[in-house]
Specification:
The chain has helices at residues 4-9, 11-20, 26-66, 70-107, 144-150, 156-162, 173-191, 205-211, 236-241, 298-315, 362-367, 391-401, 415-418, and strands spanning 126-131, 154-155, 169-170, 195-197, 202-203, 223-224, 229-231, 247-249, 255-264, 283-293, 320-324, 336-344, 349-358, 370-372, 378-380, 382-390, 408-409, 422-423. By secondary structure, the protein is an alpha+beta fold. The strands form five sheets. It has an eight-stranded mixed sheet with strand order 1-11-12-13-16-10-9-4. Strands 5-7-6 form a three-stranded antiparallel sheet.
């Protein structure tokens, strides 16, 4: 969440930055925060003064009793009791102000980085670069859902029978391809210095608030009501929460973690041709990379993460492009995001396969994640994460772009993991 001190010092800058994200109540919420903060600080000051009076009176009561002045001592003791009642009232008022401030801060998105372009939606995103040429397949080239059926490697109907739409069943070489991609992505991440983590697939409420999924994405998460747990939408959530309420030392940085997990998203409101086959699922596999960096190092780390994702797509022999997301398309928690899209030759459109983001101090403030620098000063860290990579649309592009008369050609880098060079 945003730092209250930053809002207090630069309210107009914060309002202007939130406007780039098209956060409509920006001015209203900032002004409300400033009013509440002023009231809280005044109440806190009054409370501190009252506590001084209580301490002073308590000492005086002891002196009066020691001097045998019982009546005076009893009178002052009664006055002290009234002070203590007032103390309870003020303490409750301060706590009420603090809760209201916290609730508003939880509802306000992160401010975008200065380099984020203007724009209301995906149409405002800027193409940074394209790597590779767009594949042109024969007119009769099949989309991935037809290829999955032809080679009997993914069964969407079975998944629908067992659970519902958006929960496919992978079979035979299809299951092996999934496992191959997961291992390939994990091996490349560990070779790049990321420590592998195997996280839980469910999180508690505190973890959801820590990384910003709650309350913003509550409707998009699967909730296990009996235990008040949430199925994770990405491994970013449990992995980043490993460092909740942590004070790291400078020598501990940077933190570089990777994790494979199944991911669960309700995707409420999704419909139409864009959700066919593997294009949009409720459960899917993904390898995530997570970094915790000193503020001065985080944008260099973001560039490094982007190079890592690009390298994976090149090894998979997929044409891709990188988009700098505009303000209106940025996520609630992100300060700057680059999306990676692969070209689906059969569907003739770009498919998003990765988002790489810097959250600056936004998540760290919610997580109480800080570090102590060489001078012994305590400061918030920056958190970053990226999909490296989400499997469904990568699989869709691999099946479509690499289809031949003999079957699906497996990229050379992936063959040691699949154990076959063609899927047929």
């Amino acid at each position: 969440m945003l730092q209250l001190q930053v809002i207090r010092q630069n309210p107009q800058e914060v309002i202007a930055a939130l406007a780039k994200k098209h956060y409509a109540p920006a001015e209203e919420q900032v002004n409300k925060l400033l009013t509440l903060d002023a009231s809280r600080r005044a109440a806190r000051q009054e409370l501190d003064s009252l506590l001084q009076e209580i301490n002073k009176a308590s000492k005086e009561v002891g002196k009066l009793f020691a001097q045998g002045l019982k009546a005076e001592a009893d009178a002052l003791k009664a006055e002290t009791a009234r002070y203590k009642e007032k103390n309870k009232e003020l303490s409750a008022k301060v706590a009420e102000y603090e809760k209201e401030i916290q609730d508003i801060l939880y509802s306000v998105p992160n401010t975008p980085h200065a380099s984020v372009p203007e724009g209301r939606d995906a149409a405002g995103n800027v193409v940074e670069r394209q790597v590779g040429e767009i594949d042109h397949l024969p007119q009769d080239a099949a989309p991935h859902w037809e290829l999955a059926s032809k080679y009997d490697i993914i069964d969407f109907e079975l998944g629908n029978k067992i659970t519902g739409a958006g929960f496919p069943v992978y079979k035979g070489k299809g299951a092996r391809l999934q496992r191959a991609l997961i291992n390939f992505f994990l091996d490349r991440a560990t070779a790049a210095g990321y420590l592998e983590i195997e996280p839980p697939l469910m999180i508690n409420e505190a973890s959801g608030y820590g990384t910003g999924q709650l309350p913003d994405k509550d409707a998009q998460m699967y909730h296990v009501g009996l235990d008040n747990y949430y199925m994770i939408p990405t491994a970013e959530v449990p992995v980043t929460n490993l460092y909740r309420d942590c004070l790291l030392q400078e020598r501990d940085l940077p933190v570089k973690n990777c994790a494979y997990s199944a991911c669960f998203r309700r995707e409420a409101g999704s419909y139409g041709k864009d959700v066919r086959g593997l294009n949009r699922l409720h459960q899917f596999d993904k390898v995530e990379i997570v970094r915790i960096e000193k503020p001065e190092d985080s944008y260099r780390a973001l560039d490094e993460m982007c190079r890592h994702v690009g390298g994976l797509l090149q090894e998979l022999e997929l044409t891709y492009r990188v988009l700098r997301l505009c303000g209106g398309d940025l996520s609630f928690t992100s300060a700057l995001t680059f999306d990676f899209e692969v070209f689906s030759a059969a569907q003739k459109r770009w498919l998003e396969v990765s988002s790489v983001s810097n959250f600056e101090t936004y998540q760290a403030n919610r997580l109480h994640l800080r570090y102590k620098n060489a001078e012994g000063k305590t400061a918030l860290l920056h958190t970053l994460n990226g999909s490296a990579i989400a499997l469904p649309r990568v699989v869709a592009a691999l099946l479509e772009n690499h289809q031949t008369d003999q079957g699906i050609r497996i990229p050379k880098a992936l063959q040691p993991y699949t154990g076959f060079d063609i899927l047929n």
